[in-house]
Amino acid sequence: MHEYAARFAELLEQIAIKIRSLTVDRISKAIRLAGMGIVVAALGFSALIFLVWAIFEALEIPLTTGGAFALIGVAVLVTGAVMWSKRFK
C-alpha cells in the first residue's frame, strides 16, 4: 500500500512538472524578452534624441540657431520627400 502512495505522488509531480513546462516556462521567456525589448527601445530612443541634440549643437557653432534649425528642417523635409516617393501605391 505504501508503494502505491509513493508512485501516485510521483505521478502527480510529473504531471505538475509537465504542465509547468508547457505554460509557466514559456510565458516567463516571453515576459523576459518583452522586458528586454522595452529597455532596448527606451535606450535607443534616448540615444536618438541625444544624437539629434548633439548634431544641432554642432551645427549651431558655425551657423546661428536659425541656421541650424533651417538645415535640420531641410534634412527632415528631404527625408520625408524620399520616403513619400518610395511609398506603396
Shape descriptor reads: elongated
Helix content: over 70%
Cα distance spanning the termini: 76 Å
Quaternary state reads single chain
Taken as a percent bin, the fraction of beta residues is: under 5%
Backbone structural class:
mainly alpha
Low-confidence spans: pLDDT under 50, at least 5 residues?
A: none
Helical element count?
A: 3
Largest β sheet strand count, sense and barrel closure: none
Average of per-residue pLDDT values: 91
Rg, Å, rounded: 29 Å
Listing every helix as H and every strand as E from the N terminus to the C terminus, the arrangement reads: HHH
Quick one: how many beta strands? 0
Name the descriptors.
89 residues, mainly alpha, 3 helices, 89% helix, elongated
Structure, briefly:
This protein is 89% helix and 0% strand.
Structure description:
- The protein is mainly alpha-helical and 89 residues long.
- It is built from 3 helices and no strands.
- Helix 2 (24-60) crosses helix 3.
- The mean pLDDT is 91.
Protein topology:
Elements: H1 2-22, H2 24-60, H3 65-85
Helix pairs in contact: 2-3
